[in-house]
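Q: What structure does this chain adopt?
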Amino acid sequence: MTAYVIAHLQDAAPHTDIADYIERLPGTMAPYGGRYLVHFAQHEVKEGSWPGGVVMLGFPDIEAARAWWDSPAYRELAPLRKRHIKGDIIMIDGVPEGYAPTAAVSAIRQAAAAAS
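A:
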C-alpha cells in the first residue's frame, strides 16, 4: 500500500543549502522506491489558510518511507533544509485499492449514538 510523506513548508529562504538539498534528495529516495508526487506546485486554498508550499513524496509502503527517513543519506541531508525552511512533515499510509469508508462510517454512527 502506497505511503506518503507530506511537507507543508513555510518561509523558504533562498539559500545554496536548499539548492543542494533539492539536488541531492532524489538520490536518497531512489533506493527506497521514493518519488516526487508534488513539488511546490501552485495550490488553491478552498478553506482556512495554507501559507507556504507543499511537497509530497510517494513510497511503495510505510516501511520504505520510514527506512528512507531514517537512512544515513537522508539524515545527513536533512539539516540543509531544516536550517532554512520552517514547516511540518507527516508520514502516512495510503488506503488500499478499492477502499470504501464503510467501517469509518459505522464507527462514527456508533460513537454518535453512544454520546446521545
